[in-house]
Structure formats: C-alpha cells, structure tokens
Amino acid sequence: MTQCLVCNKNISPFISFGRMPIANGFLTAEQFSEEYFFELNVGFCDGCKMVQLTELVDRERMFHENYAFFSSTSARMADHFESLALLARERYLGKNDPFVVEVGSNDGIMLQHFAKAGIRHLGIEPSANVAAVARENGVQTICRFFDETLAREIVDLHGQADVFLGANVMCHIPYLHSVIAGIKILMKPEGFVIFEDPYLGDIIEKTSYDQIYDEHAFYFSLASVRYLFSQYDMDVVDVQPQNVHGGSMRYVISHRSAYPVSAAVRKLDERERTQKLDHRETYKIFRSHVEKSRQDLIALLKDLKRQGKRVAAYAATSKSTTVTNFCGITPDLLEYISDTTPIKQGKYSPGVHIPIRPYEEFKARYPDYAVLFGWNHAEEIMAKEQAFTAAGGKWILYVPEVHIP
Hints:
Elements: E1 2-3, E2 10-21, E3 37-44, E4 51-53, H1 59-62, H2 75-92, E5 99-103, H3 112-116, E6 120-124, H4 128-136, E7 141-142, H5 148-158, E8 161-167, H6 176-186, E9 187-198, H7 200-206, E10 218-219, H8 222-230, E11 234-242, E12 248-255, H9 263-275, H10 280-306, E13 311-314, H11 318-327, E14 337-339, E15 356-358, H12 359-364, E16 369-372, H13 378-384, H14 386-390, E17 394-396
Parallel strand pairs: 5-6, 5-8, 6-7, 8-9, 13-14, 13-16, 14-15, 16-17
Antiparallel strand pairs: 1-2, 2-3, 3-4, 4-10, 9-12, 11-12
Helix pairs in contact: 5-6
C-alpha cells in the first residue's frame, strides 16, 4: 500500500512492470555497472480517481544537463506547438502587454512563436542542455523546477501571467500541489492554464502501456484533473482532444467561476463514465490486455529469429524502455535501435542494453523488420520511410495490438 499523491488516501498497485531503469537513461558500456533501477508499479486511487506511479524516481535523475530529449526533432510536434501558440495568442491572451509562462519549455519549440511576435514570455526548463538551446533560439528561459516559491519570484519580477502553458510536462511532476499553488499565485484573475498530456482514456482503450515510465508520475483523466484543481478554487472550463503522443487531452483551466464550462467538458465526462475510468475493475482488465500484448510481441520476435530474419527497431524513445524491459527484449532479438538524436547514438538502451545506432546505418542496410517504438509518429515516419517498405521491409507495431501492417 502507498499514499495517493493527490488526496493522501491509501492505494494499491493494479499492475507491476517489474524492475525498470531510467527511461531516458541511455548509457555507455562503462556505465552498465552503475545503472539505476526501481520498481515500476501503477495504482488507482478510489478517492480522487487519479492513476499514478507508486514509486517515484528523484527528479534530478531524470532531468539534468544531459537530458536526451529535444522537442524540435519532430516536425509534426513543431507544427503542433506552433498551432497551440497561435490558439493561445488568438483566444486566451489579454491585449494589455500580455505575459506567457511555460513550464517544461524544453528547447523553446513553442515559446519561440511568442518571442518572434515580441510577446513577453518566460520558459521554465530544469534540464540545462535543452534550456541552453532555447536561449540560443532567442527564448527567455530559466533553468529551474517550477513550484510555489518560483511563482512568487516570477510575479515580483514580471507580474502575473495571462496564460500558463504546459505540454507533456504536468504528468511529470509528482509534487503537483506546490505547482498548482504556484499557478494560482502566478495567474491573473482572468488568466488561463492550458496544458496537455497523454490521456488516460486513450491509454486504456489502445493498451498503450509504453506511456507508463518513470517521468510520467500521473495518467490524467478529466475526473482526476478536475478534483486536483478544485482544491485550489479552479475549474476545468474546456477540453480539447489532441491526436498526438498516441492520444492526448488539452485542459483549459481558470479561476473558479471566471468563465462558463464548455459543452466539451460535459461530453468528456459522459465518455469517462461510459468507459468506467472511475472503476478499479477497468484497470484489472487493462492489465490482462498488457500481459497479452507482451506475450504476442515476444512470440513474434522469437519466431522471426528462428526464421533467420534481421530485426531492428526505429526510434530510441522513452516508451521503448518500458517495452523492452517489461517484455524481456534483449540484443539477441533486436539487432539495434535506429535514432537520429546525436546524444543517444553510440550508446545503449536502458536496462537491456540494445545498441543505439545512427539513422544512416538503418538506411544503408535495411533490416527485414523494424519495431516502431515511435508508433505515435507512425504517419510521419512511414511517409518518410517509403524506401524501407519498397525494399521489402516490414514494420512491427504493438499498439493497439501486436501486428504487421
């Protein structure tokens, strides 16, 4: 048993993924003996309906000067964040010297659109290497973790914010009470919080269990987000489903009674009740689907090995760490993982130590099959890699079930 991070009730795990390394902890052979592991367990709280990890990793182990994820590597996500920036400017920004704050701003992929428009902004990014890239791109960025203390400092220096943004970051923060207390201080009376994260309903529906790893402390639903913010006199006033990261939800939040609640919120409420996201039994069924996915994927890879086929993987994602370690996929089943990120190349995947090779190697000598760990970017990747399929290469996908399209 453990205590819920939101309401302090006792919760128990509904699924264990076992011993797991840091998801983005790509490492050299010399670092194998020092690799850190923890137990990746997920629990459901009957009180506030929050799905969450029951064992947390120190944030400094995950977000640091060698953080291996840069948002700008995906053209699709660059377009997505440009669209979000435009939406915020047109619909949610005040007209009198507006000020925008983004938490987990990474390399400035979204805030650059405010910077170029001359709009006052501030990025908050705890990983020094990506924060430095943002500054180089002209985005005002501080290298800190956001909390109530920092919120007061920002208000003292810059005043309150019209919009507080977060993209794929709120679910990373286990100390959310301090964050939301900070947001309440930072946000103008007529201001908005706009954040998006992988949506629990999509994870359950698609059996996308690879969304579960150390950085994702929470798996949000409308019910759990509403409960969380209501403790600080804030309302969810709109929701906007997003077709990124395998299914995300954008939440728009204001101070209580500042704005009417949209019909989209009521519609999502009904969907969640139909899907029974507030029932513990739903998560037991999810566990059985995850276990079947593991069995099917490992059986397919072993069969391809028996046939003498060359199998590699495409995209050394954080999600791939969960899949390879949970399923027991080792270098004898996967020849290598191809990735375009220089900081990962020449290293090994966390836990199971599959070599990470440059994209050029994949292109120079195609494998027979490629496991698509970046499945949430499948449309973008497959359009780019038509030469692979033209040469007879086949993709292996495991969401929503294991299959070869």
